[in-house]
């Protein structure tokens, strides 16, 4: 009897294997047509005073044995420069609405020690303050996105910080900046007036926040040419009310509205799922969850189109990424998590969505840059490791300031337990170097995908670029094995294009 059952089981497996077939996708485009610019700031980063994100991850101090420049570790800075980080958001996040900028200027040994009440209740030495942050962005060659304290600050405090940073006059505040070591005013690309005002930033109603925003923004005064784009604190997840209320009631001094969405495999905050111990079911659930952002962005943009038909307001996804349960044995408030191939696929899928909405989505910031949530880099003492997500940012950097090319995609579905998602997602754009690039993601962890290209405007013979994949869905880079998941060379004929299972390709379209 056992032999018979075994034979039946084997026959069933053989039949299943025979039935399984590659996914199919067809991508059609006229390569002479152009869409909106893919703003480089879509590839922005987020560095909050949280866990080991800034202290240990970025900042080790000028006296550290770890090689550093102005206190920032050289290995991390050089790695981030390699992926062309265009923008850094600081100091939060929830931390921003309890941050008082004067605590972080002046001699370091005279700065007050505070308690970081949001993240672990640890001591905040204020060793990294305004001057240090601008040192960081200048070392990276990036722009600055500063988030102001609306929740526990004051109009005067925020206005004086803006003057301190941007004034070129001989005012007391500008001269204080000079006395603290910075002669010339800094450039600020974006300035956020509050953060998550619906939650940790004050638990406000959008109607109440609108009046506060209008008041605070009135006093954000700068010299000519120094005004940053001002950002309103918007909603999250499926919510559209904040976008609707802000865009309908703030008619001046606002350039964009922020939005936050995190990918939780279970969709439950109390038990989000494990970062590295998961199966194909949790892989699918993670991707299904992250793809919801497509509809959420579309719904919020519909509010903007209604209230701002001229298209003047941007939609800034300034917090996004995967969020898993805290690792056992670590401080839960530090939000440290490992990073696998799954995270890389999540990042690539989101980039393709952001590109699709590039007319409104001008800036996003992944949470976060080092040692926190979906980080680019993990550190342990003097050691550093680049995560799979880091490598996706490196592959996709050709899309920074590229011009999107409209296309249509017809793809089979990747399905599980009665639910389905697209098996393949894509982007096409003309880089600022004049070259044409395509990004392709096969979401299925088990089946390859054949892709047919129906392209007009240029005879494409081949694709040449990089591919990121791995043997297992849980593969990761560790301090012992740093290169388990890394890009390798990819080439294919345009008429014979196959994506391996669970893979990401970014390639140039070659004549």
How would you describe the overall organization of this protein?
- By secondary structure, this protein is of the alpha/beta class.
- The protein contains ten helices and 27 strands.
- It has an eight-stranded parallel beta barrel with strand order 3-6-9-10-11-12-13-14, surrounded by five helices. Strands 2-17-21-22-27-24-25 form a seven-stranded antiparallel sheet. Strands 18-1-23-26 form a four-stranded mixed sheet, with no helix packed on it.
- Helix 4 (155-166) crosses helix 5 (172-179).
- It is globular and about 70 Å long.
Question: What layout of secondary structure does this protein have?
Answer:
Blueprint (H helix, E strand, L loop, with lengths): L1 H18 L3 E8 L6 E2 L5 E3 L21 E2 L2 E2 H9 L4 E4 L23 E3 L5 E3 L5 H11 L2 E6 L6 H12 L5 H8 L10 E4 L12 H13 L10 E4 L8 H9 L6 E8 L16 H28 L6 E9 L18 H16 L6 E5 L9 E4 L2 E4 L1 H9 L5 E3 L3 E4 L1 E4 L2 E4 L1 E7 L5 E7 L6 E8 L5 E7 L19 E6 L3 E3 L3 E8 L1
Helix pairs in contact: 4-5, 6-7, 7-8, 8-9, 9-10
What are the main properties of this structure?
511 residues; alpha/beta; eight-stranded parallel barrel; 27 strands; disordered N terminus
Shape: globular
Uncertain runs: 1-18
The helix count comes to 10
Distance between the termini: 61 Å
How large a portion of the residues is in β-strands, by DSSP E?
A: 25-35%
Order of strands, main sheet, comes to 3-6-9-10-11-12-13-14
Structural class: alpha/beta
Q: What's the total number of strands?
A: 27
- Main beta sheet: 8 strands, parallel, barrel
Assign a percent range to the helix content: 25-40%
Rg on CA atoms, Å: 24 Å
Global mean pLDDT: 95
């Amino acid at each position: 009897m056992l032999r018979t059952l075994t034979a039946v089981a084997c026959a069933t497996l053989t039949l299943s294997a025979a039935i399984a077939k590659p996914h199919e996708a067809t991508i059609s485009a006229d390569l002479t047509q152009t869409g909106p610019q893919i703003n480089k700031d879509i590839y922005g980063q987020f560095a909050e005073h949280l866990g080991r994100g800034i202290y240990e991850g970025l900042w080790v101090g000028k006296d550290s044995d770890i090689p550093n420049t102005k206190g920032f570790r050289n290995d991390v800075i050089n790695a981030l420069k390699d992926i062309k980080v265009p923008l850094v958001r600081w100091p939060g996040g929830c931390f921003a609405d309890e941050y008082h900028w004067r605590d972080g200027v002046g001699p370091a040994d005279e700065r007050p020690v505070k308690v970081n009440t949001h993240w672990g209740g640890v001591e905040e030495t204020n060793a990294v303050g305004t001057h240090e942050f601008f040192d960081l962005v200048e070392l990276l060659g990036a722009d600055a996105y500063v988030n102001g304290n609306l929740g526990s600050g004051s109009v005067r405090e925020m206005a004086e910080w803006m003057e301190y940073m941007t004034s070129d006059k001989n005012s007391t505040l500008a001269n204080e900046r000079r006395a603290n070591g910075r002669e010339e005013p800094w450039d600020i690309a974006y300035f956020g007036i509050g953060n998550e005002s619906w939650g940790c930033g004050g638990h406000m109603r959008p109607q109440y926040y609108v009046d506060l925003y209008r008041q605070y923004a009135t006093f954000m005064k700068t010299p000519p040419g120094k005004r940053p784009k001002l950002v309103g604190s918007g909603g999250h997840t499926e919510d559209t009310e904040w976008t609707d209320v802000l865009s309908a009631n703030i008619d001046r001094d606002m350039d964009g509205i922020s939005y936050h969405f995190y990918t939780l495999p279970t969709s439950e905050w109390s038990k989000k799922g494990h970062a590295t111990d998961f199966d194909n079911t949790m892989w699918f659930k993670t991707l299904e969850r992250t793809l919801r952002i497509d509809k959420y962005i579309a719904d919020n943009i519909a509010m903007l189109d209604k209230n701002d038909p001229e298209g003047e307001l941007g939609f800034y996804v300034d917090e996004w990424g995967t969020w898993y349960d805290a690792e056992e044995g670590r401080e839960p408030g530090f939000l440290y998590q490992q990073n696998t191939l799954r995270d890389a696929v999540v990042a690539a899928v989101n980039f393709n969505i952001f590109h699709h909405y590039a007319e409104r989505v001008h800036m996003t910031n992944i949470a976060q840059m080092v040692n926190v949530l979906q980080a680019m880099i993990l550190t342990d003492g003097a050691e550093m490791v680049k995560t799979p997500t880091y490598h996706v940012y490196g592959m996709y950097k050709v899309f920074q300031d590229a011009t999107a090319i409209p296309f249509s995609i017809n793809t089979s579905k990747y399905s599980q337990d009665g639910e389905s998602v697209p098996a393949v997602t894509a982007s096409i754009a003309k880089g600022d170097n004049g070259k044409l690039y395509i990004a392709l993601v096969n979401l299925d962890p088990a089946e390859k995908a054949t892709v047919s290209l129906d392209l007009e405007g240029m005879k494409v013979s081949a694709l040449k670029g990089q591919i990121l994949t791995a043997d297992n869905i849980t593969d990761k880079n560790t301090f012992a094995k740093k290169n388990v998941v890394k890009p390798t060379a990819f080439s294919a004929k345009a008429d014979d294009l196959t994506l391996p299972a669970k893979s990401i390709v970014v390639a140039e379209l070659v004549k």
